[in-house]
Amino acid sequence: MAQWRTAVFILVSVIAMATAFTPGCKIRITAKGLELLKQESLKFVEEELENITIPDLSGKEGRFQYTINNVRITELNLTSSDLRFQPDFGLVFEVHNSSISLNFMRRIFYWFFTDAGSINASAEGVNIHTAVRLSKDSLGRLKISNISCDAAVGKMRAEFSGTLRRVYDLLATFITTGMRFLLNQQICPVLNNAGLVLLNSVLDTVPVRTKVDKYVGIDYSLLSDPVVTSENLDMDFRGMFFELQNENDTLVNYAVEPVIREYDRMVYLSLSEYFFDSGMLSYFKAGVLNIRISHDKMPKDLEMLLRTSYFGTIMLLNPSIAEAPMSLELEVTTAPRCVIKPSGTSVSVTAVVSILLLPPGQEPVQLSSMTMECKMSAKVSMKGKKLALHMDLRRFKIFSNQSALESLALIPLQTPLKTLLQLAVMPIINDRTKKGVQIPLPEGMDFTEEVVENHMGFITIGANLHFSKGLREVIERNRAEPKSLTN
To answer: Taking the CB of residue 479, how many other CB atoms lie within 10 A of it?
Structure first.
């Protein structure tokens, strides 16, 4: 029995290790960010409540018969509202002691008299309590999975006009009681639909597993349900790039887990070395890190230096090809690696540099093959929702794989090749990295006033939030143009 228990324990441990995944990306929404969301949420709730459809009301009291129809809300006064975190659940949105003004048409029968007209009414003491549960769905997308709602109207007032106003006042109690009941019944269904359908359509705009370009994609699936405290909401994302030709490849995450300790700004994004390493590995596998610099793009002084340096080699191989066009090829041999320290971020690259002659109509002739090791400093920046990277060449070394003597002969090429990399190669790399990759935020929400901080093994970007589009605009746009790149 003891052996059986031990075997079960080991099996459970292995399964847990296999399914566990350290996040490469984390996002924190703070109470300050929630204050901005509250303003947009209040506007959205007001728009939803304005569209409440209240059914017709009819009844009989003594000799009075009445019909109420064409009920419409004319004004909302949500004076006191609150949006806050509810620990271990999600968000709570509340409206206190507010009022709703309505107008509807009346038709009243009394004996042989018939009267019709409009009535202005007001619902006072309106209180709404809505709790929204946030969780991840089967695809790893953040979703509103459940809403609990409780709404109550304290009292209802109606203003009658016309010659029979005092007579109508006798009916006010019956009419307002019915209207109050109907209004109470309509508020929560409207808000439930707004959350489960409309707001979830906004969350659908967050990239989960989507293309970055024609070579790689990125996986921002949630690893678990959000962690909610009284002060913040934290989300752990996989944060892994993948090659589009091999989408099922998974890079094991051995990097330090990113940590967020700050609360001063509205939102924080934290990215580990794994996030960047998976990106560079994916591009390496896609074969886009290899670069050829043809003779027409090579500086003339470098070309002259290369021809002079390899003149003897050319003469020994074939003097007739001495004037053939020359090219230089860089082939990255292993995936670049990223190192993040408090002092800065660096990327290490190892590549084979081949110098070739390209005789017309003949096979390329290799003059030399050398190993290049370089280290680049990387600066992370954020604009809107785009995370971009700019790199500068810092250290550069070339050496021969053949002999120490040949390595000594390469010393004169050290400075010209470094200059070539700075002038011809680095602009190509930065042109790709400056395009950036979208971080997992909904459409219409952007970062502003970003501050990047380096830590040991990860970076943190603190920022404030800005709504470039309202919730309603995002909802309507996605109804007309459904997304197709995310799944």
So the answer is: 10
How many beta carbons lie within 10 A of that of residue 338, not counting itself? 23
CA distances, 414 to each of 26, 159, 400, 411 (Å): 41, 91, 12, 5
Q: How would you write the pLDDT of the chain (487 residues) with one tens digit per residue?
A: 455 554 444 444 433 443 458 999 999 999 999 998 888 888 888 888 888 887 777 777 666 777 878 888 888 888 788 999 999 999 999 999 888 888 888 777 766 667 777 788 888 888 999 999 999 999 999 999 999 999 888 888 877 665 556 666 666 776 777 778 888 888 889 899 888 998 999 999 999 999 999 999 999 999 999 999 999 999 999 999 999 998 888 889 999 999 999 899 999 999 999 999 999 999 999 988 888 888 777 778 777 877 777 767 777 777 777 788 888 888 999 999 999 999 999 999 999 988 888 888 888 888 878 888 999 999 999 888 899 999 999 988 888 766 555 656 666 777 878 888 888 888 888 888 888 899 999 998 999 999 999 999 999 999 999 888 888 888 888 776 655 444 5
Sheet holding 240-243, edge to edge: 209-211, 216-219, 240-243
Give the Å distances, CA to CA, from 211 to 217, 432, 441. 4, 15, 16
Strand order in the sheet with 267-272: 227-228, 232-237, 25-30, 267-272, 458-467, 445-454
What burial letters (b/e) apply to 206-244, b meaning 16+ CB within 10 Å?
bbbbbebeebbbbbbbbbebbebeeebbbbbbbbbbbbe
What amino acid occupies position 240? Answer: M
